[in-house]
């Protein structure tokens, strides 16, 4: 159900934004200059440069044999989930929302990569009985856990470093397969994302769509090994765990947990191929899935640059969020929230 844009300021904001901005992600012909990059930062709009990193050594070298040789017996942290849904909303049968983080294990890189490749080769019915493993520590892991690979990528993204007048806050390495997904979320970073092997598929929503995503406080939980059942993971909840505000609407399931504004959302979609460079602006909601490369895995790296908190963007975004939260207290808003609750209640955990 969509709002009448003639009488609702929030609906007007979303509608006017989409009328004034493109419905596709800009594709640049070449790597931007610092000035060109800042124009996109100022507009808070994404872009992709096809083949912008094709000459990086990583794009030429990171096949399975090379990765195994470079990493040797290095120990890495691995995210384990039963469905590939790390850091995601899970709705329990009684309707309680949990923000569930993965179970982390320390494994040798060789064992981890072997598992990911074997998992990719299995028929779907057999793979579903196995946990999904993903290297996704996202804490600046490239210079630490994966330092043996650091010389195959630049230390920074030069046009971003010059434009933003700072080095990247973190450089991250990601490796998984087609079963790993990342739920809708946002980051307060200017993100330069480079696909190395396989593909990444992004679903993007601009910050003005905060009223569409149905952010709700969800109790933090974590997958833990089940007692007495080898390999099985279950959800463990800390009795004093904090509730974190989390988007609960999925643009790929538009009728589930939708708000009165979700129908106004106009998601942008972009697929990254090997060598593509993508700019994801700060505070954009994004959902990510991936497709395997020829050896049964996907690899990417990204560079996080701290966003600017001065000027009007950060405080304006915070003000908009407060307006949305206040709107949730109105009876009309509550009545107009659509949830697909019957479907959820009958399907168990999501």
From TrEMBL:
Pfam families: Cupin_8. Transmembrane segments: none annotated. Residues 142-320 form the JmjC domain. This is JmjC domain-containing protein.
